[in-house]
Specification:
This protein is of the alpha/beta class. It has 2 domains: 137 residues, Aspartate Aminotransferase, domain 1 (Alpha-Beta Complex), CATH 3.90.1150; 236 residues, Type I PLP-dependent aspartate aminotransferase-like (Major domain) (Aspartate Aminotransferase, domain 2, 3-Layer(aba) Sandwich), CATH 3.40.640.10. 40% of the residues lie in helices and 15% in strands. It is built from 13 helices and 13 strands. The chain has a 7-stranded mixed sheet with strand order 2-8-7-6-5-3-4, with helices on both faces. Strands 9-10-13-12 form a 4-stranded antiparallel sheet. It is globular and about 55 Å long.
């Protein structure tokens, strides 16, 4: 056999995701898994029953339309207008994907060529690095630094070169919980217009903002609709992460480009679930406000427990993650700390250091999720208290 490595060199060093690694460790030790961001309860019963009804009625059991079922595309367009005032043609400006992760992959493969540069926040969702690499492009990190993790817009401007093709934004931001302000997004939009850049924005936590922070899609700002690909999904908002229903919205030429790549990935998926999510997106405002308030309360429960246990807590403005600093426990790096945490106290978490190009940048940062039942969070807090 030839000595050339089997794995494409563009993916060299990426390996197994940290979420899979830490979740496997939690399973092996019986630890409470506060590492991977999935709820431990299902979403609304009415939405689950809508999926069952679609299955029984034979809707979506065979291949659905490539762009997504019309009912869901219309519901996504209605959602964008209802919450953000964005008007979209459901036939040409909405594309249903197999979760947001496929949306990101299809978008990167569609819009990037070898040699292009992508400026992206770090710490970053790990699929960003893989998808940019698979497209043959180069990721240029804009580091968000503790304690507030706000982007340095002067640094952003300095990183733009003639090879910069697009800006990859994530707000509300995973893992830090930072939510871009309208002023920050306006400044980013001005740079995009000035340098004629595309913008891809991951908005999967759009309905999870706290303490007065508000999510405003950058596509709604002047000059941005024609250059922005917006990505979101149903998994986080409706607590059906296993259904993998995501979507892309944007100007028709951008969506057509993404659709051209997406059709060669999964082609289609989740037919019956698409009908159910169409109904979910039309739920009354009370659902969305109640969901947000419930998560804010869970955030406060876990944050207080982490502080009591000795962690330095960076209060998130959004998402369902809390980033902490483990420096009060000594000089141990985050990865080593997280590998040992399940045995030490029966809780699993994720080291933020793996989401930076330079592991030293997040050397002491550990992420916990709070999208769990209250009794699970209280149990985790009691276990974490053993570290003190």
């Amino acid at each position: 056999m030839k000595t050339r490595p089997l794995l494409n060199r563009r993916l060299d060093g990426l390996g197994t995701t940290i979420f899979a690694e830490m979740s496997a460790l939690a399973t092996a030790t019986g630890a409470i898994n506060l590492g991977q961001g999935f709820p431990d309860t299902d979403g609304p019963e009415s939405v689950r029953e809508a999926a069952v009804r679609a299955l029984r009625d034979g809707r979506g059991n065979q291949y659905p339309p490539g762009p997504g079922v019309p009912e869901l595309r219309q519901a996504i367009a209605d959602h964008q207008h209802r919450f953000y005032g964005l008007s979209l043609d459901p036939d040409t400006e909405v594309l249903v994907t197999t979760g947001a992760t496929e949306a990101i992959a299809a978008t990167m493969l569609a819009l990037l060529e070898p040699g292009d540069e992508v400026i992206a926040f770090e710490p970053f969702y790990d699929s960003y690095a893989a998808c940019i690499a698979m497209a043959g492009a180069k990721r240029v990190p804009l580091t968000l630094r503790a304690p507030d993790f706000r982007p340095d817009l002067d640094e952003l401007q300095s990183k733009i070169t003639p090879r910069t093709r697009l800006l990859l934004l994530n707000t509300p931001h995973n893992p830090t919980g930072m939510v871009l302000t309208t002023e920050e997004q306006s400044a980013i939009a001005a740079l995009a217009v000035e340098h004629d850049l595309l913008v891809v924005t991951d908005e999967v936590y759009e309905h999870l903002t706290f303490d007065g922070a508000t999510h405003v899609p950058i596509a709604s700002l002047p000059g941005m609709r024609e250059r922005t690909v917006s990505i979101s999904s149903a998994g986080k908002t409706f607590s059906f992460t296993g259904w993998k229903i995501g979507w892309v919205t944007g100007d028709a030429p951008l969506v057509a480009a993404v659709r051209a790549a997406k059709q060669y990935l999964t082609f289609v998926s989740g037919g019956p679930f698409q009908y159910a999510i169409a109904e979910a997106l039309a739920l009354p405002d009370a659902f969305f406000t109640g969901f947000r308030e419930d998560m804010r309360r869970k955030r406060d429960l876990l944050a207080e427990g982490l502080r009591t246990a000795g962690f330095r807590v960076y209060e998130p403005e959004g998402t369902y993650f809390i980033t902490t600093d483990i420096s009060p426990f000594g000089d141990e790096d985050a990865y080593t700390f997280c590998r040992a945490l399940p045995e030490r106290c029966g809780v699993a978490a994720v080291p933020n250091s793996v989401f930076y190009d330079d592991p030293e940048a997040g050397r002491s940062q550990v992420r916990f999720t709070f999208c769990k039942r209250d009794d699970v969070l209280r149990d985790a807090v009691e276990r974490l208290a053993r570290l003190g």
